[in-house]
Amino acid sequence: MGPKTARVDATIRGWLADGTLPPGGKLPSERTLVEQLAIGRTALRQVLARLLAEGLLEVRGRSSYIVPEPATAHPATSSPLATGGDTAGLLESTGTVSTVNPQGLPGWKTHGRRTVYDNPWITVDLVNVEPPGVDRFEHHLVRLHHVAIAAVLDDQDRVLMLWRYRFAADKWGWELPGGIVDSGENSRTAALREVEEETGWRPAGLEHVVTYEPMIGMVQSPHDVFVGRGAEHVGEPTDVEEAGHVQWVPLADVPVLMARGDLMGSGTLVALLHMLANRPA
Q1: Distance CA 81, CA 83 (A)
Q2: What is the largest CA-CA distance in the chain?
Q3: Residue 60: closest CA among 68, 17, 12, 280
Q4: CA 199 – CA 248 distance, rounded (Å)
Q5: CB 2 within 8 A of CB 208
Q6: Span 44-71, average pLDDT
Q7: What is the pLDDT of residues 195-210, one digit of tens each?
């Protein structure tokens, strides 16, 4: 959680604690909160999603947030997921799912590992694992780098993208700027650096949206996705190997590009889908 989202999270929790928002009370509209709390809509929704997941708020209709009455609150420790019950009511009332282990299922046991290939770009391990109720076996684990991706919008709802060639897929396509987080580097710093190196534009700022694993079954490579609005042109791209044709692409064109298969990379897809899903109504 960034400093801005942490501040807003603490503010809303304070309203809940001191009675400014009593049980049954309605949170101001997102538009009002954005102005009142000086935060972007995307970052605000991250805070609200966290409060929904904890059962501190409920959503009514499309975007009305209500403080639940004590009898109807759904804290994670007593949610239908935690007891193995029906989750439909929880999904209806909060629009999210608690992060719990529904049946208290055990994880896999690890009995050892050996590295079979290692270089600065990729490591391949064989890990001796024992899933519940299954005989031990050697599981391949491919370890790649930590990656940061950034989607930057301008005041015309255009997103900063690169048209470039990717050898592994042997194709050209549109990508968002991004790359490897260097050792000891903050991922937001890496995202800002990659945008500037690859496009020549310096973002006004970036907010973290999600961290995910793109190929979670066998590959370990955390991807951090950031979004922001506004950038300053500071020069030509300096990362010649990664640079391509730089263009501000209308966000409205993204569904067409997706349907044509012109968008490359999971980070690009995740970030753009997030932007489309969170566009103002």
Answers
A1: 5
A2: 60
A3: 68
A4: 10
A5: yes
A6: 75
A7: 999 999 999 999 999 9
Closest CA relative to residue 113, chosen from 122, 123, 126 = 126
Task: Give the total residue count for the chain.
Answer: 281
How far, in Å, are 33, 208, 221 from residue 38 at the CA level?
Answer: 8, 17, 34
Tens of pLDDT, residue by residue over 15-40, are 988 888 888 888 888 888 888 999 88
Rounded Cα distance between 151 and 206, Å, is 9
Helix (H) / strand (E) containing 139: strand 137-143
Task: Please write down the long-range contacts of 234-238, taking CB distance under 8 Å and 24 or more positions apart.
Answer: 234/196, 234/200, 234/201, 234/202, 235/200, 236/200, 237/197, 237/198, 237/199, 237/200, 238/196, 238/197, 238/200
Task: Write the CB contacts of 35 (distance below 8 Å, at least 6 apart in sequence).
Answer: none
pLDDT tens-digit map of 69-94:
764 334 433 333 333 444 444 344 44
